[in-house]
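ok so I'm stuck.
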Amino acid sequence: MATDRRAHADTHGHEGGHHHRDVSGGWLRPAVFGAMDGLVTNVSLIAGVGGGGGSAHTIVLTGLAGLAAGACSMAAGEYVSVSSQNELIAAEVDQERRELERNPAAEQAELASMLRARGVSAATARQAAAEISAQPEKALAVHALEELGVNPGELPSPVVAAGASMASFAVGALIPLLPYLVGVDVLGVALGLAAVAAVAGGGVVARLTNRPFWRGALRQLILGAFAAGITYLIGILFHHVTA
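replied:
not stuck anymore, here's the structure
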């Protein structure tokens, strides 16, 4: 029986437990955002240039330029954003560390109060706060989690976020370009392929978050169609004005 329990614990991480997906935002958020942004950005560019009467050569050049510029911009933005967030968190954690060193008794009482607010009895809260406070790094981690809502040891990587954003943007931006790259110089084919990708991407994201596939698919399709429709109209108007 004990052997069976240990085997179960080894298989599932801990006895009677269950697994959660990583929701810290290290790579999934920038990857999803990058792919959808790349798709919508480039299909909008292609629709605008195509609506304005641009040649296949111009559309491909515009699409490739948009892909490169957008991917680099997304990567730089993610890197700076995540780095700045981590630096801010590090500064706040350092401040908390200094408070734990200067006023250990007050910080221990504060921790006990936080545990009481979570429904722990007064006696248990005091005992737990004392045991946690006896381990400085553990106390710092608990205070950071309770007061800042973060785990200092599990911050997202700026490099991972930037890389995921750049790669996914490039993939998304490449999709509406594919027909032109293989010699199919038809705007409708590019728009149709982008619509299929929007449905698939939006639906997959919805399923990852346990939402109905159709809801995410429809939302992404509407947003993409709205953006592409605006640029297409701009292209048509520009073509008529300059014709």
